[in-house]
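User: Mind token order:
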Amino acid sequence: MNNATSNWQDSLAQTYQEFYTQIIAYSPQILGALLFLFIGWLAAHALRIAIKKLIGGLDTLFQRMFKSDHAAHERVKRSYSVIISSAVFWIVIIFSIAAAANMLGWDMFSNWLGNIITYLPNLITGLLIILAGFLLGNGAKSATFGAATAAGIEQVELVGRSVQVIIMFTALVIGVEQIGINIGFITNVSLVIIGVLIAGGALAFGLGAKDLIANVIGAQYTRKHCRIGEHMQIGTAQGVVIEVSQTSIVLDNGVARVVVPAKLFHEMSSTLSPDADNIGLTTKTEQDSQHV
């Protein structure tokens, strides 16, 4: 009995001794891995702060280039800043964990992280493409909004939003394909739907905006050939030109204002007299002579 107890104690002591010896022999790798993880965490934290400052600078630049709503711009800046800085932080952490696992000799875990790291370039490239598309879409929306407002287009919000959606959708498709996700079927269906919508919109615009385009062209011709204050006769309408808008000509006949579609100036023969006062005087004299 005493011999059995003594053998058991000796075996346990030997096991503890071997475990202690292995820990002592393995401690440099453990300390090195922990130190590497700590350095990686510091680097990831520093990069996250630097990325946030960089995005803040880029945001200021975009805000100067494209004037937009300040509150919406702040929301966009915060969301992009959080997404990009967090992505960079965790990428550096994954690299640090993979290096630490390799130092400890954890081959299976190290190989698994190595596969993730191999996939990271495609993932990062795809995410950057999507992010660039969102940034470009917002900038294009603001630029289109300003240009459409300057051109006098009424549906400026619809035009700007359409440009933004097209750019974002294109960037999303390219980015997802770069990541490696097969969305060929969804892309084909989306392209067919977009093609049908564009064709239908073009047909509806062509049919419905025919008169509008004709009036716009007529207004351009009117501005080239007549001046404010001249006397004009178009068909049965006549009077002094007091305004040429985007689509119409406004005449004053002395009794009321007459709004004439500008396309009539291009489609019908028109009479222009440079001195409206003399025209009125001559007409009055002729009427007095007829009464006499």
User: Anything to note?
Assistant: Residues 278-292 have pLDDT under 50 and may be disordered. Residues 40 and 93 are 6 Å apart (CA to CA).
